[in-house]
Amino acid sequence: MLNTTDPRTGAVTPTGLDATAPEQADTIVRAAQAAFADVAGRDRAWRAGLLHALADALEADRAGLVAVADRETGLGAARLDGEVSRSAFQFRLFAEAVREGGYLEVAIDHAGQTALGPAPELRRMLIPIGPVAVFGSSNFPFAFSVAGGDTASALAGGNAVVLKAHSSHLETSARSFAVLSEAAGAYGAPDGLLGIVYGTAAGAALVAHPLVRAVGFTGSLHGGQALMDIIAGRDEPIPFYGELSSLNPLVITPGAAAARATEIADGLYGSFTLGSGQFCTKPGVAFVPAGADGDALVARLVERATDAAASVLLNERIATSFDDIRARLVAAGAVDVLARGTEGAGTDGGAGFTAAPTVLGVEATALTAEIAEEAFGPLIVVARYADDGEILAALDAVPDSLTATVHSEPAEVEAVTGLVAALAPRVGRIVFDGYPTGVRVSWAQHHGGPWPATNSQHTSVGVSAIRRFLRPLAYQDAPEAVLPAELRDGYRGIPRRVDGRLQLD
Amino acid sequence: MLNTTDPRTGAVTPTGLDATAPEQADTIVRAAQAAFADVAGRDRAWRAGLLHALADALEADRAGLVAVADRETGLGAARLDGEVSRSAFQFRLFAEAVREGGYLEVAIDHAGQTALGPAPELRRMLIPIGPVAVFGSSNFPFAFSVAGGDTASALAGGNAVVLKAHSSHLETSARSFAVLSEAAGAYGAPDGLLGIVYGTAAGAALVAHPLVRAVGFTGSLHGGQALMDIIAGRDEPIPFYGELSSLNPLVITPGAAAARATEIADGLYGSFTLGSGQFCTKPGVAFVPAGADGDALVARLVERATDAAASVLLNERIATSFDDIRARLVAAGAVDVLARGTEGAGTDGGAGFTAAPTVLGVEATALTAEIAEEAFGPLIVVARYADDGEILAALDAVPDSLTATVHSEPAEVEAVTGLVAALAPRVGRIVFDGYPTGVRVSWAQHHGGPWPATNSQHTSVGVSAIRRFLRPLAYQDAPEAVLPAELRDGYRGIPRRVDGRLQLD
Lengths: 505, 505
Prior knowledge:
Two copies of one chain form a homodimer. Chain A is α/β, with parallel strands linked by helices. Helices cover 37% and strands 21% of the residues of chain A. In chain A, the strands form six sheets. Chain A has a seven-stranded mixed beta sheet with strand order 15-17-18-13-12-19-20, sandwiched between helices. In chain A, strands 21-6-3-22-23 form a five-stranded mixed beta sheet, with no helix packed on it. In chain A, helix 13 (413-423) links the parallel strand 19 (401-407) and strand 20 (427-432). In chain A, helix 3 (62-73) packs antiparallel against helix 6. The mean pLDDT of chain A is 96. At the A-B interface, helix 4, strand 3, strand 6, helix 13 and strand 20 of A face helix 4, strand 3, strand 6, helix 13 and strand 20 of B.
């Protein structure tokens, strides 16, 4: 039987859940394949309704979900309550996208004469791919886990989903799954459209399974690489969408430091300690100008961190890893410990897994890849720079990331343009005068970035995440009766590209 | 020095070209990176103009290109002339797409209150990724080689391209490259935007090079897997877009056989022998109904093949492989040799590499994966079936493919719907009452399919092929001055999604 651990106290209790045996995983994937085939005949309105039913069900069990997740993650009721809202919002946003239909990328080229002679008629749209395996992350037990964006986007596209429950919140996973699968059943979805497995071996079996057509993963670089190795051993390779590791450099210009030192220090403190620093978008290195304004900003940041108590981390592995990496960074030459909050018991006074906010300092000219390592937890490296050239040189030591952030004043636009040109090739999102933590769920969002942030050219947050779980299918000179409704000439109400010209409806 | 071989005669002559040394390949990739950075500041109109200049230059050297390609490939002047036109057309179509701007997938979400509280402004578009390595195919020395669709789509997206010349048409590659790079230079493109390497080792060096951001490949499953292995060994994985292997099943219904036996037999003969059967979309297995109508169709197909002389294949490797696979298929139990044209000298009477059109027969119930192996060359397996159930069962032995084809009569729509439901998950394009060879270049085309046809969910022909070489970048709360023009509020003339609503301009 599998256990769960309260990270506030370290107390271990049995969950009542067993690790899924490989043959059970096979049964679950086969049921997902059967359900996938079953729902292929249902229209977009049906699927949008399903997504709404899942959103409603999550909110209906809000209190229960938050309670179990709080016990398993220590993230606190307020944050988890917001995360349930966010998960429900994601399902509803994908429902809106499914109804709108632009995601189908419908294109119709009528037959006719072309510069290359007579050409046949072609009608193309995106179609779902089959069962998708989704590995949730530890740090978002709802929004990037069983009820998260990968699940929502895969279902929105018309796929079946088999989840791998995260070992760090098994009961939250089980309860989320029960809520979603019961709501799906009540709505009329076939059994098996959603499945779940528990345990590392069952997760590996999912990724290796011939019927699984893609993998969505949010987690560590190490974990992602293990799954990529399994995929490399498959007879048929499948896409792996991994959201893996990110340092998220943040730059404060001299103008911003002069104008807003305290405000930025407070904002930065809030961002790097949010959720105990366990955000993939946590700013891990901040470039602060040398001189009095930068000194004032750093002093305020140090004051905030020094005054703080340790906060709870998600699990023992993360706590151990955080301690190890922090020790490595501190031991690296050229690094000063500028602040370290009160270590010891967690916020609730228990004997669980905690870490104190930590601010390290380094000269930008001394920043190395060794120092620019992601420490998952409340730690930030402040790199002091004399001029933009030092930032640009130091960026070569910083791994490509999900985000970069620039704080500046309007008069500095020329310098900022240079910074943006240097940052753009390295990240997936550039934030101005704000903080990278807090990822808006919307149409224009992009949550991704060059390796090692992700291994794909797609987003895992926002509407276009659906594209990961679709593929094109073209019909050439097809009789109208065999065409999907959206590809017929008379169909209205979705954007389509007809003979090269985009039409709204 | 590298040699070239005339496949009609087997005569080997020196090319004057040397294999590219690994350090030269590095220099070429670095030049591509520098050129990529240089063109990042040029607008879409500039890039569209570049694509037109390349198209014009290809057509201006049409006679010279065709002559050298004919000598190296034996494909014949008429076909090669058409292929130059097709390549030029591709460049121009991508120019049109670049001007139209929809491929940028611009999305803008303004700041405001949402169901989850206040949200920042986000503006996202697709941006180029960097130098792309392109491996051309043997069988299309223009349209899928140096001057082919991967080159056109990668350049259209704003990337630099480094080509690996195919060993089977080195001089065609060199001449195509000279034409394109001179035209690019004359237009004002920086040196290095296009590069080329020769030889297997240099090709491997390209795929392993840290600055190369993606690989486009059209070729054999074996060759593709070798490149995927190199990618697996990189520190940073990059996307590999392989178009690899395809059997392309074709189904003739009883109604179609009754109504059009001779017409379909003639069409099928033309399709499976087109370009000596060296098309990735060649129909490799045709399901023909049992009974008199099917007998008549097969008799006509056999008559056409029996009367035919051998035709030239592209190179010795393909000729040897064709002979080996044909021998294996013939040796497989349950297979009958229904027709085999006159073997020996090629169409031009030389001592080159040739193959005679070959028709093999099998009962659909006896079709195995062993028999359903792609033979690259003029060979088709005719599988006779008693009912649709036999087709559906036999399809499990057929590898997933780029295309499937159905010939039927209007009264059979119900049966055809069932066939289409079975074929759709297995292919990327379904052709009705036509032939899969001949791939229209247009907005709605899809040239791709489930493994082993390709390893991606993208197309390698048609406008959306550009998506392979782009990635999203989002700007959050950015000052207008640092935004790309297409992301500013006042910009007009391209489709954009603003606050979730698609707008045409």
